[in-house]
Structure formats: structure tokens, C-alpha cells
């Protein structure tokens, strides 16, 4: 054996970077600075939501009538409202409720939408036709209008607003996962699974669903942003949170009567909605670019 | 194209049928007795029976649906429980107000969005590009009801530049012919009133336009950046055509498809967003009409308002799909 060849054999093997779609996506996501800013904003608001009781300087519904309409100051950083309630504390508490409603609504629509989408895509035929037509009909309504219709039926409160937002988002996830399932079920490993006698249920749970879920993560992040705005919109219209419950939309609704004399009652809840939604949008865009390079703009 | 058009139109039938069933069901899905809910807890048994009779709730469900559909086909949308007026008579004024607002918003969105997108792509990575894209990012994240309040505070309360509510000043009377005030004032040659109508349209129009404007700007920029690298653009430049001509004539043609898509996708958002914008700006449109009806539990109005918006939405999507297929021959119906 020649000398150089011998040297090559004796060289320690270079540690290769392990590659998997998830790892690649994470590497790509980490390089996207704008997406990281979005993630930071989201984590910041989640932190506020979780630790709200510890972070609030006052009880959110505590009324100090002597401090009515106090402008932002060192005692009340975001000022006070018409009942002398501390706006900062209410914005912090609002974060907890708005995020919780946004997350719960989207998780609900992911579960129901994915279930319907998987069944439609996997079983096809008449089940697919019925489910797809139901999705078409639901998508025939502007989403906020459908949500308003649902709340008009169920009655205005925060829980019904959550249900309404969950329902209107079902077809988004249903369609998404249906199209993914349609392509995944044609893959060779599914044919192989069938050939070895795997049951439909096992194929669905072990192969189809795990391989169809990635677009749902991206869409879910973006949908939380939309859900937060939609819930706030319903509360703003008086169809969501009712006193003494509060969320950012309800705070904006309350501020309408006196924002001319106390603009801070309107500015801070709106900023909170905008920043949170911006965070989820930036993070969602980053996830989409990282997980689906074809979508990169 | 012909086969696609026919199939796309046929697909409308089940969708419109489903929409009608869903809208019809609104009143039947109310938990408890709908007539009781409409009249409140203190309603007498006679009053409840009367409302049930008026709404046909005492009939078998299937018969109620067929009566409802029969009425719809003859243009009868029912009678408002609040105003006691046939809905078909009063809805047109509201619908025209919404359409005028939506049209102006879409015009603003397309004009500003497309131009901002083109200039951003043209001066790629310049300060204009960065600022425009940051504004676009904020634009897609801003709640329009908050933006509307901020506009009112800054431009009406603080600066006093623009009116904050309504379609005109309360003292102005406009003889309505079409209910589109921009057209009506022009028909009458009343330019002072026309100017007033325009000034009332600016704030709600901009609020409603913000999200589609931001999305159009982002999509136009992205597609322009792609198109500007294409060989035929290089050829156009090599032929000696000025940069301005290349961008606006050759590249803009390719921005038509994303803009068309966005118009389709955003129309629903605009119609839905109109409810919020109209509530803030006291705009007497169909969104406000539905909102007031929800407060008054005027279910026939809620049903008709939602049905009208959903039907318009379905037809606009149809038109956009057909236009889309006409512009891009690669699109086929699957």
C-alpha cells in the first residue's frame, strides 16, 4: 500500500453533521434574524402571560376612583382608565387571556381540522366529497363574519368567541392536511406498509399523520396571530369578553368612550395586540421558510 | 377555458345551497326557544306565539326551508323585527355604502401596494425598500379597529384635518339615486358635497385598505424581484429600453397575477373588516346593519346581511378564479 493511502486510512473519521428534515429546518430557522426577533417577542408575551399575577403592579380590576384618567407616570406606567384601574396590570392580564384564547382556539381547530382532513384525504370517495364541500361552504363566509354569526347563535361571551374562532379555522387546517395526506399516501413506504399487512389505523397514526404534520405547525403559528386579532375583534364588538372579564379587545372597546381625553387607554392594549401578532407572524414566516424552502420569498 | 368556466360555475351550486342552509339554520341553532330569545325573558306567551308565527317557526322545518328559499328567489328577504320594514327595501342603502367604502379601500390598497412593491423591488435593499417592508410587516399585524381609533385620534381630534364619523356632515343632504354618494354628488354636479364625501371616505378607507395594501406590496415586490432577473427583462434592457419603461411595462404585467389573487383573497377580509371599520367610523354600511341587528336580536336582518355578504364573496371569488385562469393559461381545474 502506498504511503499517502496508508495515511488516509489512519486519519480519524471526520464527525459528520447528522442531517434530518427537522434538524435542517432548525439550522435554517436559527440563521433567520427576523424570525428570531419574532420568536423573542412571542416568548416575551408568553412569559408575561404565565407570570401575570407576579408581574402585575395592581389588581387588574382594582378601582381607585381618585386616580381616574391618570396619564402614564411612575406610579402607573401605562396610566389609568375611567375607573382608576391600572392599564399596565390590565394589559398584562389581557395578555394571559388573549394568548390563552388564541392558543386554545387554534389547538381546537388543528385537532378537528386535522382529523377531518386526514379522514377525507385517506379514505377519499364520498367521505372526501362531503367533508370538502363542508369546508367549501365554511370558506364561503369571510371568517370574522362566520365567527360573528356563530356568536350571534351561541350568545356573546369569551368562551363562545373561542369556540367561534376555533370553528372558522377548522377548514384551513382541514384542507391543508387533506392535501398533504393525498400526496403522502402515494409514497412507496405506505405501499410497503400495506404490503406487510399494517392496519389502516396503524398506517394513519405511524406514517401518514407524522409525515403530514409539518405544514400544520407553520400554519398554526400564523393562525394564532389571526386568532388573537379575531378574538380581540369580537370582544371589541361586544361579542367576546364581558365585564369583569377582560382581554385586549375588550379594553379597546371600553376605551372608545373616552380615548379623546385619555388616549393611553387605547394606545397600550392596541400596541400589545400589534406586537404579539407581529411576533407570531415573523415566527410563522421564518418557520415556513425553514420547513418549506420552496415557499421562501 | 370553457370547460373550466362551466365546472367552476357548477361548483357554485352546492356551495350556495350550503350557504343558504347555514344561514337558514342560524335562527334554529339558537339554544332554547328562538322567539323567547328575541323577545327577552319577560315576553308573554302571546307575544312569543306571534313572533313564532311571523317567522314561520310554527311550521315543519322542511317547509320553513322551502318557504325561505321561495321567498329568496322572489327577492323577499323577510321583515326587520326592529324597523318592521321589508329588509330588501332597506338593505340596498347599507350595501351601497359598504360597496363604496370597500371599493375605495381596494383602490387605495392596489395603488399604494403595487407601487410600493415595484419601487421596493426596483431599489432592492435600499432604505426605501427596508422602510416599505417594515411598514408592510406592521401593516399585516395591525388590528384595523385599533388603527381606526388611532386615525380618529390623530387626524380628527388632534389635527382636525378629516371628519371622524359618517358618510357626510349631518347638515348635508344628498339626493340619492344610486346610493353611491360619490356618483350621486357627481350626477348632481355638487362638487362641494363630492369633496365632503371624499373627505369622509379617507380615514375608514385607509383603515380598511391597510392589510391588503401590505400584502399586495409584499407580493408585488417578491414577484417583481423574480421577474426582473428573467431573460426577457435583460433583453428589454439590452435593447436600450429605459429602466422605467422596463419596470412599468414588462415587469408590471407579471405583477397582475399576484394582485388578482390578493384581490380575491382579500375581498372577504375587506367585507369582514368592513363590520369593524363601519362600527368605529359610524359608517352606515351592511356591517353596521348586522352589528346593530345583533344588539337588537333582529335575526331576519342578521340572516339576510350574512347571506348577502357570503353570496357577494362567493361570486367575487368566482370572478377572480376565472380571471386568474384567463391570465395564466397553466391553471386548470382539478
Q: Greatest chain-chain interface? A: A-B, 42 and 46 residues
Q: How would you name the oligomeric state of the polypeptide chains in this document?
A: heterodimer
Q: What overall form of chain A do the CA principal axes indicate? A: elongated
Using the 3D structure, state the CATH architecture of chain A.
Answer: Orthogonal Bundle
Give structural notes.
The complex is a heterodimer of chains A (297) and B (334). With 297 residues, chain A is an all-alpha fold. Chain A has a single domain (45-62, 74-295), classed as MetI-like fold (Orthogonal Bundle). Chain A is 71% helix and 0% strand. The radius of gyration of chain A is 25 Å and the shape is elongated. Chain A starts with a helix and ends in a 6-residue tail after the last helix. The radius of gyration of chain B is 24 Å and the shape is globular. The two termini of chain B are 13 Å apart. The model of chain B has no long low-confidence stretch (mean pLDDT 84). In chain B, helix 1 runs antiparallel to helix 14 and helix 2 packs antiparallel against helix 14 (299-327). Chain B is 75% helix and 0% strand. Chain B has 14 helices and no strands. Chain B has helices spanning 2-10, 12-28, 34-39, 45-54, 61-73, 87-122, 127-141, 144-158, 181-187, 191-228, 231-238, 243-280, 286-296, 299-327. Chain B has 334 residues and is mainly alpha-helical. Chains A and B meet through helix 6, helix 7, helix 11, helix 12 and helix 13 of A and helix 2, helix 7, helix 8, helix 12 and helix 13 of B.
Features:
heterodimer; A: about 300 residues; mainly alpha; MetI-like fold; about 70% helix; about 0% strand; elongated; B: about 325 residues; 2 domains; about 75% helix
Topology diagram in text:
The complex is a heterodimer of chains A (297) and B (334).
Chain A: H1 3-10, H2 21-31, H3 33-50, H4 52-55, H5 87-123, H6 125-139, H7 143-154, H8 158-184, H9 188-195, H10 200-212, H11 214-236, H12 248-255, H13 264-291
Chain B: H1 2-10, H2 12-28, H3 34-39, H4 45-54, H5 61-73, H6 87-122, H7 127-141, H8 144-158, H9 181-187, H10 191-228, H11 231-238, H12 243-280, H13 286-296, H14 299-327
Amino acid at each position: 500500500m502506498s504511503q499517502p493511502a496508508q495515511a488516509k486510512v489512519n486519519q480519524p473519521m471526520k464527525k459528520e453533521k447528522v442531517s434530518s428534515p427537522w434538524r435542517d429546518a432548525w439550522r435554517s430557522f436559527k440563521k433567520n434574524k427576523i424570525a428570531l426577533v419574532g420568536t423573542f417577542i412571542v416568548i416575551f408575551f408568553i412569559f408575561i402571560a404565565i407570570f401575570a399575577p407576579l408581574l402585575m403592579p395592581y389588581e387588574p380590576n382594582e378601582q381607585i376612583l381618585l386616580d381616574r384618567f391618570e396619564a402614564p407616570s411612575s406610579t402607573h406606567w401605562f396610566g389609568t382608565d375611567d375607573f382608576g384601574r391600572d392599564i399596565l396590570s390590565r394589559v398584562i392580564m389581557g395578555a394571559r387571556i388573549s394568548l390563552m384564547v388564541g392558543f386554545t382556539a387554534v389547538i381546537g381547530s388543528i385537532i378537528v381540522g386535522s382529523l377531518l382532513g386526514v379522514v377525507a384525504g385517506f379514505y377519499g370517495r364520498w367521505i372526501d366529497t362531503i367533508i370538502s364541500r363542508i369546508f367549501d361552504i365554511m370558506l364561503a363566509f369571510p371568517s370574522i363574519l362566520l365567527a360573528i354569526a356563530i356568536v350571534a347563535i351561541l350568545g356573546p361571551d369569551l368562551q363562545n368567541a373561542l369556540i367561534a374562532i376555533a370553528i372558522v379555522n377548522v377548514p384551513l387546517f382541514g384542507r391543508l392536511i387533506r392535501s398533504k395526506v393525498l400526496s403522502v399516501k402515494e409514497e412507496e413506504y405506505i405501499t410497503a406498509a400495506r404490503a406487510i399487512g399494517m392496519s389502516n389505523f396503524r398506517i394513519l397514526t405511524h406514517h401518514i399523520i407524522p409525515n403530514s404534520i409539518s405544514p400544520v405547525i407553520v400554519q398554526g403559528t400564523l393562525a394564532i396571530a389571526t386568532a388573537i386579532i379575531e378574538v380581540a375583534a369580537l370582544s371589541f364588538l361586544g361579542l367576546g369578553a364581558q365585564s369583569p372579564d377582560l382581554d385586549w379587545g375588550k379594553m379597546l372597546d371600553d376605551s372608545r368612550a373616552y380615548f379623546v381625553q385619555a388616549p393611553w387607554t387605547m394606545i397600550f392594549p392596541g400596541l400589545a395586540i400589534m406586537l404579539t401578532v407581529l411576533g407570531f407572524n415573523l415566527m410563522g414566516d421564518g418557520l415556513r421558510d425553514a420547513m418549506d424552502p420552496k415557499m421562501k420569498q | 377555458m370553457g370547460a373550466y368556466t362551466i365546472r367552476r360555475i357548477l361548483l357554485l351550486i352546492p356551495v350556495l345551497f350550503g350557504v343558504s342552509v347555514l344561514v337558514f339554520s342560524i335562527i334554529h341553532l339558537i339554544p332554547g326557544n328562538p322567539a323567547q330569545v328575541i323577545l327577552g325573558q319577560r315576553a308573554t306567551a302571546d307575544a312569543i306565539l306571534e313572533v313564532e308565527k311571523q317567522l314561520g317557526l310554527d311550521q315543519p322545518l322542511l317547509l320553513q326551508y322551502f318557504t325561505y328559499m321561495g321567498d329568496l328567489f322572489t327577492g323577499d328577504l323577510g321583515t326587520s323585527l326592529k324597523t318592521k320594514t321589508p329588509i330588501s327595501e332597506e338593505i340596498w342603502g347599507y350595501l351601497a355604502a359598504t360597496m363604496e367604502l370597500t371599493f375605495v379601500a381596494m383602490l387605495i390598497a392596489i395603488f399604494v401596494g403595487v407601487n410600493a412593491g415595484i419601487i421596493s423591488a426596483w431599489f432592492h435593499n435600499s432604505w426605501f425598500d427596508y422602510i416599505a417592508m417594515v411598514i408592510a410587516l406592521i401593516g399585516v399585524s395591525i388590528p384595523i379597529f385599533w388603527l381606526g381609533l388611532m386615525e380618529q385620534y390623530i387626524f380628527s381630534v388632534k389635527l382636525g384635518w378629516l371628519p371622524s364619523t359618517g358618510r357626510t356632515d349631518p347638515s348635508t343632504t344628498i339626493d340619492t339615486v344610486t346610493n353611491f354618494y360619490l356618483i350621486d354628488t357627481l350626477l348632481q354636479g355638487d362638487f362641494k358635497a363630492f369633496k365632503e364625501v371624499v373627505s369622509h371616505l379617507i380615514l375608514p378607507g385607509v383603515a380598511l385598505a391597510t392589510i391588503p395594501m401590505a400584502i399586495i406590496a409584499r407580493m408585488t415586490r417578491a414577484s417583481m424581484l423574480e421577474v426582473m432577473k428573467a431573460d426577457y427583462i435583460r433583453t428589454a434592457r439590452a435593447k436600450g429600453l429605459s429602466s422605467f419603461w422596463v419596470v412599468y411595462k414588462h415587469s408590471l404585467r407579471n405583477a397582475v397575477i399576484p394582485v388578482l389573487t390578493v384581490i380575491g383573497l382579500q375581498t372577504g377580509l375587506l367585507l369582514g373588516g368592513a363590520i369593524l371599520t363601519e362600527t368605529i367610523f359610524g359608517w352606515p354600511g351592511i356591517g353596521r346593519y348586522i352589528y346593530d341587528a345583533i344588539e337588537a336580536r333582529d335575526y331576519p336582518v342578521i340572516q339576510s346581511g350574512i347571506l348577502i355578504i357570503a353570496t357577494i364573496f362567493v361570486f367575487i371569488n368566482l370572478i377572480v378564479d376565472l380571471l386568474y385562469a384567463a391570465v395564466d393559461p397553466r391553471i386548470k381545474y382539478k
